[in-house]
Amino acid sequence: MSKDAPPSGLPFVKMHGAGNDFVVIDSRLRAGAVVSPALARALGDRNRGVGFDQLAEIRPAEGADFTLEFWNSDGTRAGACGNATRCVSDLVMRGLGKNAVTLHTARGELHAIRRADGLVSVNMGQPQLDWQAVPLAQEVDLLHLPLPGDPVAVGMGNPHCVIFVPDAEAADVAGLGPRYETDPLYPQKTNVEFASLNGPDRLRMRVWERGTGITLACGSGACATAVAAHLRGLTGRQVTLDLDGGVLEIDWREDGVWMTGPVARVFDGQLSEAFLAALG
Fold first, then answer.
1. Residues 6+ apart with CB under 8 A from 146
2. Average pLDDT of 143-157?
3. Which is the catalytic residue, given 81, 87, 161, 223?
4. For position 79, which CATH number holds?
5. DSSP 8-state class, residue 128
6. 80 and 113 share a domain?
């Protein structure tokens, strides 16, 4: 193909926040959304597609800078994704020449800012601490679920099961993660966090994400873990979390749970027409 030939197919951007990686598709100038379960599954295949922990599609919004919709690599919808929200917010801020944006998600209206040090913060809203909002299948004590390991349930726009362990490094994330994910107590399945206290207001966390598996970081999971740790009396409201892919700062304020961390734009790409046509 000539280097002067016009591009074809579907453009995308690959990004990551603390190793939590995403494919971002900007559909703001299109008539409708382009992502389907089949496209999400095909793109999420790390051997035959691009690979991601979550797929984020940017859509237009009234009364906000943009709307953000999330998909898991198995083709299911994700209700919230904190690190993807930070990454896409940085992308949009740079495009608009702004240091703050407002966006719509299934979680509601969120606000993001870029700090002077280049880190990006997003207000993920208040945690959901009612059993129906998480959601759970029945009314139970959210701080002491009737499951092995005495976990905590927290909703952050998606459900979380936080398990405090003596050493998160030694936790059997691959073996236990899918068991908790599919437990009947969580009718919509759940993300699973394994966390240990590493120092004053500092936690080590590893995560199993529903619909994806083990990831290097999970922003909403970090928020849920910080909330659970504070409610259990382990930490204050400002917590630093060490994840497999990097460090996230969580601050549970009166206006919501703020998450701060790094973002990276890895590369821009274009899905071929043949790849898209093969989806049927």
1. 140, 185
2. 98
3. 81
4. 3.10.310.10
5. B
6. yes
Q: Which of 87, 161, 218, 223 is catalytic?
A: 218
Measuring CA to CA, which residue among 90, 86, 124, 91 is closest to residue 108? Answer: 124
pLDDT for the residue numbered 8: 65
Closest CA to 245 of 82, 17, 18, 15: 18
Q: Is residue 184 part of a domain?
A: yes
- For the chain, the domain total comes to 2
Note if 161 is an active site residue: no
- Using the Cα atoms of residue 279, residue 67, residue 264 and residue 73 in order, give the sign of their dihedral: negative
Contacts of 191 (CB under 8 A, 6+ apart): 158, 159, 160, 161, 181, 207, 208, 209, 210, 218, 220, 221, 224
Instruction: Quick: pLDDT tens for 94-109.
Output: 999 999 999 999 888 9
In this structure, of 3-17, 140-154, 156-170, the range with the lowest mean pLDDT score is 3-17
Token digits of residue 232: 């259990």
Q: Which residue segment(s) compose the domain that 217 sits in? A: 152-258
